[in-house]
Design brief:
single chain; mainly alpha; 5-stranded mixed sheet; two-stranded parallel sheet; elongated
Length: about 575
Amino acid sequence: MLKPIAHRRARDRWLLALLTALLIMAVTYALCRPIYETNDDSSIVAAASGAVTGVPYAGNGFTSYLYGALLAGLFSLNAELPWHALFLMGTAFLSLAALIKCFACMGARFRVPCLALWAVPGGLYAGVLMPYVAMLQFTTIATLAAAGGTALLLCAGSGRGHAARFDRGIAGVLLLCAFALRVQSLWAAMPLLAAYGVLAWLESPRSGRKTALCCGVALALLGLLTAADSALYRHNEPGWDAFCVFNDRLSDLLDYNNTDLVDELAAEAAGWPPWTTYMVRNWYQLDEHMTLDGLTVLTDAIAEAKPAPTAASLLRATGSVLLRYPMFAFTLAGFGLFALWAFFAQALRRRFWDCLAILGPAVYLVVFIAYFYGVLGRLPERAAFTAACPCYVLLVLSCLRAFAPGAERGERLSRRLGSAAACALALLCAVPAAADASARLPLRWQEQSRDAARALSGRMCAYACAHPDRVYVTDAPLDHDPFYVYGDALPVNLIEWCNGMFHSPMYQEKLHVLGFDSFTSRTLLEEGVYLLLSGEGVLNNLQGYLAAEYGPVSVELLYRGDGFLECVLCPAPQPA
């Protein structure tokens, strides 16, 4: 017996979505070389593969504990595969397929013209998603999965049957992937999921009730998972809560307040010498002043010295970000034009719930930017993407509803205007993206600015592995391409002084494995520790800092070559 036509259509749409996502990623990786956008992903891989403590470690501090345990288990089974990169690419692929499936369903349901139906997701990919598919980063891939899962869950809505249940199942898988990679990225999209669930219920109490119920169940389950994950960290990582409190202060200083104001207040409020302030501002983690009390004094002084945000300052800050970031500016103008057409089209039809669905993501995005840049003073591009991606996705899906056929006068003109607005969106997204491609994308025919750093990181790891009897400290963070594997060459004896997890339980375990109870600048002088430094300038800065803290320092240079130097420091002999 043949399957019902609805099942065949759902199957065909998924097949189309999967093939289209595969084609998109194939073209993207044909033009771009997959890389890690930051060294955080390299740190995740180092922990899970055993390069930090000597055995696969789950509590990396970046991702959920559950994902860390999964990754550590995979590396225990086979250390020769780039499991983290494969998971990121697989999640990106499934997320793109889910988004395409949503667009296909919306197009069929509301009879969206073919030109508009392909122009909108094309512009979304070119202007927003493509850089973060080419450059893998756990935060942004989690955001992409959250957007795909949220959109698919809302599109499935109150549907019944195998097709709707399958869509909700895939949505659940994507939300779990987002949770696994970055809990904060997932929860940034959850206000939108909650708002759209409530909106569906208010718009249609009978049919929207199931949509709202699905959204509520998803939020409840994710809340329970988040609590369970926090409990796992606390149970398996001794001192985890204390580290989180410390790390919040450290992040507040280095991520949001690392400005010239720190130089003045570090001396006045915290009593930090100039060399200490200079080294800490450059992510030096070994200083003895790096305590919760010291950081609290400094960050509180910075907060008191900064003027309170006003409506005018928030407006200026928000406007400056909108003009500066590529995912805004022309891209935002394209989405804004399309949203403007949809809003007025729905307002003329008196579909005020649909108008509210268009306004919601736009308001949320502006509030998010105003808070991070206007109040906190900094909006990393990954944080901007965390808000922009789900907002843009849900915005355009809401706008496509304006193509729904109606009996009102001027419907044909409205649909033509909508198609024109969709084409304008695609152009405003694609043209600037193409013009900025050489600066924004890791094109295969261009040498990347961090290629030398990645190669240096690999050579330092190999050098440390070749001298397992020595403990090394380096200023160069581990930074590898996504397909780098450690195998059996684990540089456990290599300590990064700039690692954001240096004070975490994981790093304390690393120091314990190496025979240290604690590790500060003083350890560099008194414990026979060796240095692998990226240049003479770094050595001079470190020597000046140590001399100011502890007195004259002598340097014994042991090796120079391959872009780095090996040396050992000790207190200079005092004159008789």
